[in-house]
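batch job 7 of whatever, protein = Zinc finger SWIM domain protein
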Amino acid sequence: MPRRRSSYGSRPYRYDDDDEGYSGYGWRATTPIRSEQGIKARSKRGQIGTRWWSQRWLETLEALGIGSRLARGRSYARSGQVLALEVKAGCVTASVQGSSPRPYKVAIYLSPLSDQDWEHILDIMAQDALLAARLLSGEMPQEIEALFVRERISLFPEVSDDLSTSCSCPDPANPCKHIAAVYYLLAERFDSDPFMLFTLRGRSKEAVGEALQQRRSQVEELSQAEDFLLAAQPVPLQPLEERLDTFWQEGEELEDFAPRPAQLPGPSPMLRELGDAPYTVVGENLTNWFERIYMKAAQYARDRLENE
């Protein structure tokens, strides 16, 4: 059975540790068994993970004091040593091929949020029509983390107790290179599906979407009821014979009317349908650049319309 580890290993990392071999006389460098069937990181050099949520995930690990050990797993992640990876509520499980013929079993545990915290967060999300629309369209807005922070609920792990790991290898360091490789591949999984963050915190993408739709329908029904009540109130009208001279003229109320263009969720759903571009610019996928350009162009058009 894999042993549970705290957030800090008991053996300091040595740069000559190539793998986890232990001979009975001490630690010795060994060579991992290569696998052609493993999951390989898309990034072949430079940083792993391009979206804000994957970068935030790696930054969180560094803040917890394990960032210096992450590099141990980068080559494993890129060479396909991770044979399988599954994300479930509160847990990530993986199989990693090391120097032993039998792959090592890795588990990463992230404390799920309580039902009370989830219900509160979903209520807050549903109150913002634009935010809810972006989430329902499959987009993970960057302001979502600020919403969690404002409500004093953590989306990413904040303290070492939020995150625990296990690996069946004999290396007592935490993270060992097998756990570190899973951390990196998990960051790339977040790139493809950021809602895995919600899954790790206890709610699937489908559950969040269903809850938001239900809450938004209730908000819209209430708004329609309020509009109906306002429309039902009698409005005093000036007799027609008293306003014949101004009948064909615009009313004073029209001066206060200012049309505003609708704030759309943005181009992300369209770009996401196309997927990542086959090119990068300054180490970042071209799709990310297009997304920012589209958002700035849309904002510029709105500003021009409002100022004219």
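notes: The radius of gyration is 27 Å.
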